[in-house]
């Protein structure tokens, strides 16, 4: 596979960290430009860290792919407005800056139920972002819509989420009743699916949890 330069935003989260690890381990990736408000606890010869204000992203180096893994919850953000500023505005700003840097392929960590016409605010914002990215006409657009994400948040310095623990416990007991797309999925599995799909993507592709397991 041809050598690639990659941009990633959100590498301190569960999926983003797994994507970053995969990129650094990929011999076909020569440089990884990581955008964030703070650097990830990782050092590597091909990692280039850019501490940025997502409201005003500087000109980015030329690159081939971008991975968007920025995300939060309304509870952590503190308000719907603050949530939208991260999950919609920041992701879209990175996509625009990446496209200006020559990026032609984009991978997005979205969510199950993303729908721009949804009545639920969280799902609506996720869907609006997907629609905005599709209008940008990337040559390849891969959207991952995982169900309940599971992973070691505490190892990343994030608070454990009670809902995730409860959902995981219930799924273990009732797994035979739960369709594959609704079963909890490991963050590493989502990262692997995106890392596999994005380099060869053509047009719009949506990955549901059942396919990513």
UniProtKB/TrEMBL annotation:
PANTHER family: OXIDOREDUCTASE HTATIP2. It comes from the Bacteria. This is NAD(P)H-binding protein. Pfam families: NAD_binding_10. Residues 10-134 form the NAD(P)-binding domain. It comes from Undibacterium umbellatum.
